[in-house]
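Most newcomers find our protein records easier to grasp once they have seen one. Read left to right, the backbone structure tokens trace the chain's path through space. Nothing more is needed to start thinking about how sequence determines fold. An example says more than a description, so a record of this kind follows:
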Amino acid sequence: MIRRLASATDCVRRRSRTANPVSLRDELIRLRRIVDRIELEFATVAGAFAATEEEEWQGCLSPLHWMRLECGMSAAAASSAIAVGSQADSLSESIAAVEDGRLGFAHLALMAGTARAFQASPTAIPFEEQPLLDQAVNHTLSRFRVDCAHARHAHDAQAFQAEQLRDVDYRMLEVRTGEGGAVFIKGFLDPVGGATLCTALDPLASSAGSDDDRPRGRRYADALVELAGHGLDASLLPRVGGQRPHLQVTTSLVSGSVTSGRRPCWPTRNTPRRPGRPRSDRRSAARAQRPVRTTRRAAGRSCPKGPVANRASCIRVPMTPTVTVQTMSDRAVQNFQTTTVEVGLTSTHH
């Protein structure tokens, strides 16, 4: 029988194909329904294999482990197949819906996982197939995943909350530094932690307008950097060695002239270059040696205004040609040349 199925599959692979969009859509639907039925049969065999003795696993730790190695499957796919096969008695109507083409195998796998969770929990009520089947037929896969979670929480809240707490222990965030100071991030968050992060990022990751052509991934990356910047600016992070986390980068004013309280004078991507000849390095260096005025403010009092007040409250100090830059973390110090940052002018007293 399996040999005949393989021969039929080879004939389908060698058939002539059309470029008509209507025919392509029809073929995709029909092929998906056939694949669902084949996966259903695979799950039935997987459930039977999962019930065999340990010596039949050929030295593997579990039937799932054997399927991963010998069938070339991911752990999630193997677990779904075993769940569907082992819960076939509780999902008879859903299996019939898959055979009729009214339900996909992915929906059935979610139902099987929910039925297995009900069966394994000592505090759960008996599993009811029909309410979930009605939702599975009418809802998309992502929506139905939420429906299954709601069903578990409604009928077995104690076990569901215990599982949520266990997921907290699996939180993981790996931050690796690449060549040139680039940072690679990989991690896992439990549903509560993930919802907290997404709630904080969503307002910052929204599109800036019709001219914002950044893809969704880029907007969320920018939002993460901006969120970290807000945390640094608000001075909410704990002190490390008696100091707040910050980044200080020192550079010569010759390489980038800066005016206190104004935007950087070098052109950026969004700032058009002004016409005319640039100032020479000699002139820029001479301007850097000029004394500047700085204002001292008393705590809780505003700076006095007017010519007389300025002469009384301001002093002249020589300015050191340095620029202090505050941004996300100390990792960006190594690649300052390739990082766009906001710059503020500092002065020192001698």
Q: What stands out?
A: Residues 256-269, 273-288, 290-350 have pLDDT under 50 and may be disordered. Residues 281-345 form one domain. The two ends are 92 Å apart (CA to CA).
